[in-house]
Amino acid sequence: MESHPNASSKTDRKTVERNRRNHMKNLYSELNSLIPNHSSKETMSLPDQLNEAANYIKKLQRKLERMKEKKENLMGINKLSRSISSGMMVGVKSPHIEIHDMGSALHVVLTSGLDQQFMFYEVVRLLHEEGAQIVNANFSIIDDMIFHTVHSEIGESMHGFGAARISRRLKKFVSEFVNAS
């Protein structure tokens, strides 16, 4: 009688193992069906098939990352376009300036047409005249508009009144240009 439970146990293990192998075979087959354009999949060894699937997944991950970066770049452009159309400039080519006083720093955004690039140089000149030190300046061109961004630091003695004076001078310069046009 003792041999009978052992035989049954052995048969159960064989059945479980056969079912496990069949299940794994089905899973490998399903995985292979998801990998495109590989007619030689059936002739590939199992490790080669798994390697092929891993490479395909890595390729998809890289593609996803590139698409996320592209989306973020496009979203940045869309945000800029929305801020322009929501009040800053709606199809207007005349220059516009925004100045943000952030304590010891001034953030200046100058928007102008392609034919008004000299305005950027004037803004930089005015900032230097007032003793502000330019930390960073960059620009973007969208259609026929240029968006200049200037980050500058102002000295400790210039906080408050100095920043207000710089802001007035920059706004006056832009408004005089607009009125002269």
UniProtKB/TrEMBL annotation:
What GO molecular function annotation could you give as one example from this UniProt entry?
Answer: DNA-binding transcription factor activity
- Annotated coiled-coil positions are 50-77
Task: Specify whether Cell membrane is a keyword of the entry.
Answer: no
Gene Ontology terms: biological process: regulation of transcription by RNA polymerase II
Q: What residues does the BHLH domain cover?
A: 8-60
> Which UniProt key words apply to this protein?
Coiled coil, Transcription, Transcription regulation
Q: Which InterPro entries match?
A: bHLH_dom, HLH_DNA-bd_sf, MASH1/Ascl1a-like
| SMART domains per record | HLH
PANTHER family named among the record's database cross-references: ACHAETE-SCUTE TRANSCRIPTION FACTOR-RELATED, TRANSCRIPTION FACTOR BHLH162
| UniProt-recorded name of the protein | BHLH domain-containing protein
Source organism per entry reads: Nelumbo nucifera
Instruction: Tell me the lineage of the source organism.
Output: Eukaryota, Viridiplantae, Streptophyta, Embryophyta, Tracheophyta
